[in-house]
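The pair is quoted verbatim underneath.

:::
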Amino acid sequence: MAYSPGALIAPRFTRAGEGSVVSPNERTLLRLIWRNPGISRSEITAHVDLTQQSVYRIIDQLVERGIVALGAPKPGHGRGQPSPTLRLDGRYAYCCGISVNTDVIGICLMDIAGRILAETQVTLREYGMMEALDLVMKELKAHQASNALDPSSFFGIGFAISGYHVGGTRYNAPLPLHEWSLIELGPLLSDLFGKPVWVHNGANTGAIAESMFGIGRFIKHFAYLSFNYGFGGGLISDGELLVGGNGNAGEFSGIYDEEENPRRPALQYLIERLRGNGVEVPSITYMRQHFDPRWPGVEEWVDLVTPAYNRLINAISAVFDPQAIVFGGQVPVALAQMLIERTRIFGRPRYGVPHPPAKLIISDIGGDASALGASVFPFRAEFY
């Protein structure tokens, strides 16, 4: 039987007498409140295809369950009896996001209202998979203790890994993560942590983080470039993640053949070039924190990958037509800017009028975007 995290959700989070967490109408209202914290109850009716009576009844049920909290009315808003403001109640539930990269594992704890409770990293070094997960478990327990988090409010885990999806909860990760590859991660992690685990590609959870906490608050159609040891990405259309028929939409490296592959903008090749020029860069995380565009080898590498990079940008623009292309993952800001400055759009104007171009934007999400997106993914999957 296929692994399903939904089947492992604790009964205290499900609707009375049902296996689901929320109804479709509850999900609609929770998503609206997530996007508009502080919206008044009376304002909601204008945004949904529900009667005021239905809206009030559903809100009352969500308040009774502890998912939504009532706040003070907006002063001077509307006529009649003031309507309370609404927010998701962070005390109801929290999740842990775990993001496995080739050099570090990012950890992020977040409550259902989107408040980050803790962020940290575990350095992989030469640890095996189970050793690394044991360290993650210790970090998680330490964060729970330091934040006095109720274990019964722990909803689940979002788990992200670099690599492409091959079926079930199996991913084909880069060589440094060979031990994590081609195994059913969902059941293994659920047994280890004792919680339901939603497994996803790390570039996709980075795109989700960007959608919910970054430019996605203003732009609903964008492509996310995830610069890591390898190179991938994610596609957000009308605010939703596109996963494709096999779960690999956004695997941008797939457009390059064997000869071109080393000339794609994967950071493993930049590190190799830097080391060849005498610059000691122990990891991608170190490079991101200490990057200097004047390092010998940087300009040379950027020039080398520019043709493949430009072909990708134009392919994304032609096929997906995004409003923006976001530079994310573990890319240093200065390196992203160097690539943006070398961007060349191939489209030819017709009658002097070109296609509307995608904005090229460097993500301003600090920390590990993949872990951030993984932490909110269970809530997004089940609540909003």
